[in-house]
Amino acid sequence: MQVPMDWSDPLGQKITLDIARFQTNSTSKKGSLFVNPGGPGGPAQEFCYLQATGVGYFSDNLMESFDLICPDPRGVGVSSRVQCDSDLWQQTPSYFVNDEASFQDVLNFNKKLGASCLNMTGPLLGFVDTTSAARDLDAIRIGLGEAKLNWLGFSYGTQLGAAYAELFPQNVRAMALDGVVNHAESAVDSLVLSAWAMEDEVTRLLAWCNANSSCAFHNESGDAAVAWDAMIANANKSPIPAPGCLATSNSSSAGTCKANVTGYEIIFNMENHFQSPSQWPKYSQAIKEAMDGNATILSTPIPVSSSALDFPNLAIGCLDWQMNASTFEQHITIQRLGEAMFPHTLGSSMFLQFATTCVGWPFEVTNPQHWLNSTQMAKAPPILIAQSTNDPATPLPWAYGVAAQIPSHALVTRVGDGHTSYGTSLKMQAIMDAYLVNLTIPAPNTIVIDPMGNPGGSALTQMLG
Known about the structure:
Elements (H helix, E strand, L loop, with lengths): L1 E3 L9 E3 L2 E4 L8 E6 L8 H8 L7 H6 E6 L14 H4 L10 H22 L8 H14 L5 E6 L1 H12 L4 E7 L8 H25 L12 H14 L2 E2 L18 E2 L1 H11 L6 H12 L18 H11 L7 H14 L8 H8 L16 H4 L5 E8 L5 H8 L5 E9 L8 H13 L7 E4 L7 H8 L1
Parallel strand pairs: 4-5, 4-6, 6-7, 7-10, 10-11, 11-12
Antiparallel strand pairs: 1-2, 3-5, 8-9
């Protein structure tokens, strides 16, 4: 589908959006359900492809009621995409700097990377902001002949959904936001809260590890936290080898990740391993292997092509988030704040990445943080907000902050771990299905306690509360 690259110039240059659809065979179809997996930069089409192969993410109830619409946002996946020099990306310096010289090294790298992205992507690089992507969604809705939009967004998909509701509240039938990003946060708040979320989840993992022998580094050094902190500190001094990442390795990871890993990188990469708490035993083994000198599983992935997910993630973030860290003094302040407040994770998060790598980006922020327009949001139907209490990527306060901007909302909080809840808790899935299919609104401020998503079951829920 063709849409304007610049929505303020609808007759100007066009870009292409890729839209996958998985059609239901049900005679009780209610319409189409648009989905987004998050990121930013995650391609939605994979949802439809997996559903078609029989290993889909969504319930039979949902698939009997809707065609599944999986549009890759502008800049992402098979749509007109952001491309950058993948070889140059592999030279990315640490987001943590020691002095003005190392900060200048970061700035010089950023300018080279940004120039490569602009050269390979073209002017689209300056138009991949979330507001533009939300306007694309309405064009797709119209193209499909849908009177109203049904939306299920995860993580960044909640920011995209909220942006759509702000622009086109009258066009929303149902909107479920799972694992919520609050695009109204200030630079400091976004940095601190995102870092707090990661620190909280690592702390809970370490507490679980001390109490549970199924943790691979249970009783390591007498205390899991001591063993973790020592590994991170040592890796920052001398990166841990990742032999399985070597191109000559027989590992399935050969050539796909960095051959040496710093402590900062391990922390940053761990966010991806916290998607589901059921995976804690598996990833405790990865941590134990890193402690023993092999960080292959926790290594930083290498973009395998010029159109890797990392590139739209950065491009969208640099247009959406004003981080106010363009000088060494500003950057070292937030770095030291993170290190002081979060001893296990040192303030590492995606927002520290934006605060670092977006300095010197070819385009200024075009869609800065802001509160959702209250007049517009008052026109929206009830919007369902789903959030876990211990999400390593999108902290609980963000969900409450977004709820405060949506006059008609239903907030459902799951007591438990993991990023997003639809695929983690059957109770949460049932609530979201009932809302999307039948517009059933849960009771205000519903709390769901579902121990199935925790590796230690109900005992872990009681222990960590």
